[in-house]
Design brief:
Number of strands: 0
Mean pLDDT: 78
Largest sheet: none
Radius of gyration: 20 Å
């Protein structure tokens, strides 16, 4: 059993730091955010399609529809929390005096 020190970097972060400026493994916050927005958009589209199918065909697989709806809701909530944290960090930087 390997016990890591609490101040050590996680594996993924350590790999990114050690790789330097390798453009293949390096991704910016904006790129990650754009990817997350795309994934949430896909979840929302899937939820809308599931609701439309449920309304047209009837409640045959209501449990699957509810699962898709919950996935979309959780994804949207997570995206909103990331947005709120980013805005909070931005406001904190703007309040700093140099």
């Amino acid at each position: 059993m390997r016990i890591e020190q609490p101040w050590s970097l996680p594996h993924k972060a350590a790999e990114l730091v050690s790789s330097g400026t390798n453009s293949e493994t390096k991704s910016s916050f904006a790129a990650e955010l754009k990817d997350a927005v795309g994934q949430v958009n896909t979840l929302q589209n899937n939820a809308e399609e599931a609701m439309r199918n449920g309304a047209v065909r009837g409640a045959q697989n209501i449990h699957e529809t509810m699962i898709v709806l919950q996935e979309a809701e959780i994804g949207l909530k997570m995206l909103m929390r990331v947005r709120d944290k980013a805005l909070e960090a931005y406001h904190e930087v703007m309040r700093m005096q140099f």
